Amino acid sequence: MKGGKKDQFMILELKKRYKRNANYYDNYVGNFNSALIAIKPQKGDGLDYDQLPSPIVDKVFKDMFACEEGKEFACMLITTFLDIDLEELCDGIVLYRNEMKKIWFDGKTVIVDFLGLYDGAFFSIEMNNSNDLKRNVDYAHRLYSIFAKEGMKKNEIKYSSVFQLNINNFTLDGIDEPINVSVTLDEKSRVRTNIIFVDVYLPHLVNKYKKEGLDKLNEDERLILGMFTPSEKEIIKITGGDENMMRFIERLKGLKYNPETMKKYYGEVEARREGEAIGREVEKIETAKSMLKDGMAPEVVQKYTKLSIDKIVTLL
What we know:
Layout: H1 16-19, E1 23-24, E2 32-33, H2 58-65, H3 71-81, H4 86-92, E3 94-95, E4 99-100, E5 110-111, E6 114-118, E7 121-128, H5 133-144, E8 161-168, E9 171-172, E10 179-185, E11 191-201, H6 202-212, H7 219-227, H8 232-239, H9 243-256, H10 259-293, H11 298-305, H12 309-313
């Protein structure tokens, strides 16, 4: 990351390997696929000996990244993509409020997962378990002009730089790579280089690891996959267990043995399981309706959807 002229905000600099492959942001092509990574904690009061709370869960994510004790791990994610010194970022970044001011978002209270401010640049990280990408884009653009005030002359307006990292626990049709980097265009179709989006698709990353092996993952992919793998042995295997990752593991262990944290963790996991079950049921019903509309017999519909005949009859 490089500084600009006096009183101007910093310019974000992607690392070369990502700069070469950056795309123009175009509202994210494709349809949402709920290919979520399953979270399967032990039933009862505790996790297995090797199992750790998963940062995929909102409560764990915020306790791991969005606090003074854990911001170094957020900085590790940020410096994976940006050309900036990790130590400098850790020392200088200031955690911003998780609850954004209503005036910034049309009177709505907005809760963010991680938001840091460093030398006039905003760094936002969102853990997405549903397709909230358009919402995240809206947040980033509002942060970009957050210091602009009504009545300002054009030459008086100061725009901030914004780095938006989305950790996505889902996939999209048409996007097959685990990591996608995008920049946006302004109203005159010019590249807006001070807004950068990075999308990490965890299911693609997991599949790459399982199908192609650890050797096919680059250093950045190993770091990200390790942080979102709820197993101490697997984290060490994937990342090599350097000093930073051992601190990461120790912090996860601290959450594991905190009764209040784990109570919230299990509550969120159970709520998600119920939500996924409802989603699967709705999907089966929609499939059954389509099959019946095409003239298929209820018995055939039952074979492929596993719905009861009584339920299928009500859809006729």
